Amino acid sequence: MKKSILLLLTLVLTFSVGCSSSKEENISLYQRGLDLINEIDYIAENEEIVKLIYSDEYSLALCQKIGAYDYGEPKAVYEIENLLDVIYNFVENESNVNLQQEAKDIMRKKTVNSFTSLINAQNGAKDLAVASILSKGSAFKNNMTGNTKTYLYTFEQSEYKFIVTFVSESKGVVSAEANIIINDEFNKLDKIEDFKSYLDKANFNDVNLVEVTK
């Protein structure tokens, strides 16, 4: 019981940091995503936090491996365009349900985040469990155009990729959530053409990838 309570408190303290609102003005989506990724890195490399969450050697070793890499500067960042529309179309076609705009607005953040879970699930339950913990969110000021944007971050010094979802809320506030990708096949990809080919094979053939700069 004591361990369960300690774990709960640790999770609340750890993840509430990333869910707070930022007072910084005009911070870019690119930078906010990178900040969240480095917060995930902090969790992964912090042995005390990890041991409170996991007890099995596999998960501990995986977190240690993830935390050992450098996420200071991305190799490349891509926006995955049309991802939300592609997912909605798939859901409507498979379920024969016409989603109303109000329902789409409610579902949009969880819908895009389910995309990363789908990729991570292909690596098995243990990796999916680790990936589900290594996520981070925040809200900040930004005059983002459009309702939702999805960025894919790649790094020269790490095999792991990250997907960050940005959702426009109200009054110039954007919520962001970063998720690590733990998928052996996906992590071997390097060029924009490789990612597009992977998504095509996964029936996300209508999405487009565009490189994002600072």
Which key terms come to mind for this protein?
six-stranded antiparallel β-sheet; 9 helices; 50% helix; disordered N terminus
Write up this protein.
50% of the residues lie in helices and 21% in strands. It has 214 residues and is of the alpha+beta class. It has one domain (2-212). Strand 4 (161-168) and strand 5 form a beta hairpin. Helix 2 (29-45) packs across helix 4 (57-67) and helix 5 (83-95) crosses helix 6. Mean pLDDT is 83; it is low at 1-21.
N- to C-terminal distance: 47 Å
Neighbour order of strands in the largest sheet = 2-5-4-3-1-6
Tell me what portion of residues adopts beta-strand conformation. Answer: 15-25%
Structural class: alpha+beta
| Rg over C-alpha atoms, rounded to the nearest angstrom | 17 Å
Determine the fraction of residues in helical runs and give it as a percent range. Answer: 40-55%
How is the secondary structure organized here?
Layout: H1 2-16, H2 29-45, H3 47-53, H4 57-67, E1 74-81, H5 83-95, H6 101-121, H7 125-133, E2 135-141, E3 148-155, E4 161-168, E5 173-181, H8 184-187, H9 192-201, E6 208-212
Antiparallel strand pairs: 1-3, 1-6, 2-5, 3-4, 4-5
Helix pairs in contact: 2-4, 5-6
Compact description:
The chain is α+β, with helices and mostly antiparallel strands and 214 residues long. The protein has helices at 2-16, 29-45, 47-53, 57-67, 83-95, 101-121, 125-133, 184-187, 192-201; strands spanning 74-81, 135-141, 148-155, 161-168, 173-181, 208-212. The protein is 50% helix and 21% strand.
